[in-house]
Amino acid sequence: MDIGLAKTFLEVVATGSFVGAAERLHLTQTAISARVRLLEEQVGRRLFVRNRAGARLTPAGERFQHYATTLVQVWERARQQIALPPGRANLVGVGGEFSLWSPLLADWMLWMRENQPDVAVRAEVDSSSRLLERVHEGSLDLAVLYNPPQRPELVLELLAEEKLVLVTTAADGGVRPEDYILVDWGEPFTTSHATAFPEYANAGVTISLGPLALNYMLAVGGAGYFRSAVVQPYIERQQLRRVERAPEFSYSIYAVYSTRSTAEVIEPVREGLRICAAREGQLRDER
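Above: the chain's sequence. Below: its structure in token form.
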């Protein structure tokens, strides 16, 4: 079977539509339909039912999903291992959300260089949802994410507990509703935040990336929720102030990997991440 057919099938499953799969794969909807039709001819069963809402799996499609995932994982692992650079015994692909690369994953890469010099590293940055899909399909060995949803055949290992705290640029430590910046830290935060601050539900500025929101707030002023470890240096320099009696929200960091992961590949990665996360936590406690 053409591995591209299996990948196309999984993209339709992930997006819930042929249109969504076409956008992700940078193909036309006609090309996606042709690939799915060819795959259905090869397996001898109809895999999707299409309607106005998108595409849903048939019972045969649900059974095939497991095998398609395995096919892609095996192919990606074989391709990576065959292409190992000279002098390297193994290769690991790790992804992380943008805001997690500094300092946690940057420190981890240095740890790998010092402690696992025979392992080649492929590091990537992407959205949480995309990284989760790539771990599930096998094109990444592990992803480091904030508060990821539980999914079948994926292990969520807690690395660190962080806090989101409310800070402001105002000299009096106050918050003006018109200057409030709503940062999208994911569904759990959004739900808790809406309960605690219903008056900020329709903020004038909403940003989905923490570092971008922080740079914006430092430039124009305002208030918002940010990772405590990130804003602490700004608080020490009196560029920001904690808002007194404001609630704190949990923001946990997880390592996500497949239950099918090879121990030889994944164990050094997990060890390094645990060590680096512990170091970062000690530095926070000493401040």
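The radius of gyration is 22 Å.
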